[in-house]
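Weekly modeling sync, notes
Attendees: S.R. (lead), two postdocs, one rotation student

Agenda item 3: backlog of single-chain predictions. S.R. asked that every request posted to the team notebook include the full sequence so nobody has to chase files. The rotation student volunteered to paste the first one in as an example of the format we agreed on. Action items at the bottom.

Example entry:
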Amino acid sequence: MTGEQDDNPYLADFRHRLGLPGIIDVHTHFMPEPVMRKVWAYFDSAGPLTARAWPIAYRADEQVRLKTLRGFGVRAFSALVYPHKPEMAAWLNEWTAEFAERTPDCLHTATFYPEPSAETYVAEAIRRGAQVFKVHIQVGRFDPRDPLLDPVWALIQDASIPVVIHCGSGPVAGEFTGPKPIAALLRRFPRLPLIVAHMGAPEYTEFLDLADEYPDLRFDTTMTFTDFFEEADPFPTHERTRLLAFGDRILFGSDFPNIPYTYDHAVDALVRLDLGDDWLRRVCYQNAADLFGIE
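Predicted structure, as returned to the notebook:
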């Protein structure tokens, strides 16, 4: 699906029914155009990290994507970027800082990679007002326990800035994915406000267990519960009661624009869990509004 979008009737009705001023989407991707094109090319090739065909539903230029997202009633969103090699993160952070300046409804996003300069550019990102960091263990192929990251995690913990972290082993396991490296990281930095992307798929239970121990650990719903994810890594039905228990620590994410289905399906996938309107209000808006100070 390409081109500009008007308001989606399903999403408009969803917001109206729940009395929401909008949706807050903590997991969206805006990147420098050359990087975004390379990401799309990788998905098009069904590369080894995707493990399956992955058509991009909202392939369009940046301004069209922004209008599309706003047309869905999204009031705030992120620009998640992630380096796959050294000497890339600082450049990405410069771009996201400029993007946030010209896009006031986008959370100021930053990232990092295990390298000697990481402490310096992360400190600079925090000084410039970074509101959320993004880490992709699978793509970056690095251990979150790397000693080069110790000062970075300390800075982020002290600043209480959330980190959206892709650390689950889906869609393809990596050398450092899974709950064990994150458990070890949290033992050293127990107040890290991590947001586990994709609910930790496919290690849902293990990451939920970690949340029992660490009250600052949160989750985003990105792609979870959709037909696309349920075919490959279904969320265990016996854990659905824990979704209610952690209702104040789950945030809506979509992976826009890099999703192989329509945006409203991501919302409907949550609705059909039948966990109640209050749960939906918290997940789709209030939890993120509280976390990021969005009035």
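Discussion: group reviewed the output briefly. The two ends are 32 Å apart (CA to CA).
Action items: rotation student to repeat for the remaining queue; S.R. to check formatting next week.
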